[in-house]
């Protein structure tokens, strides 16, 4: 949610100078992708053309271990392959109340056990000290995920969003930040706001999404389906 670190200036267009490699679920990050993450604070990218993968997408955890544990149980139960975290992981932020079950250390331990199958971007409430604790890169402003030829632009939402779209060809923009879940179309692009699993706003329930084989599904924290859209 807005009110954390100062917002950074957005690049004008998607970089296209690098060929992206693949992050394999359950294993270590490939050398090419690791190099991209470690040498760029702006963006990173992965491409999967090898198999159908199930991605669980979550944003705005804000330090709540009980909420994260529900998501991780769903992840295991539904046999997901990769966990995509779109910012605001450990810090609850100056505009929010202290969440139930706040436990930054517990979140670090839970996520580091799964570091090989996590990709993440930086939210406006995330800090460099968070990166020192987490075993997976999370300092990039956005991640370009290419899955079966479909281009998914993953970001936190304070720089890029449905009002401030990235330039370039993408099939979906996926973010959080506002704590208001959404699954709608804007021209030819699918807009996917994950909401928040900890601080939902606007009368919404805690939410996250799953992407598999061209389909986004929005879930409540209890695992009930709210909506579904195909690319």
TrEMBL record:
InterPro entries: Ap4A_hydrolase, Calcineurin-like_PHP_lpxH, Metallo-depent_PP-like, MPP_YfcE, Phosphodiesterase_MJ0936/Vps29. SUPFAM superfamilies: Metallo-dependent phosphatases. Its cofactor is a divalent metal cation. It is an enzyme of class 3 (hydrolase). GO terms for cellular component: cytoplasm. Keywords: Hydrolase, Metal-binding. Its EC number is 3.1.4.-. It comes from the Bacteria. Residues 53-212 form the Calcineurin-like phosphoesterase domain. Belongs to the metallophosphoesterase superfamily. YfcE family. This is Phosphoesterase. It comes from Prevotella multiformis DSM 16608.
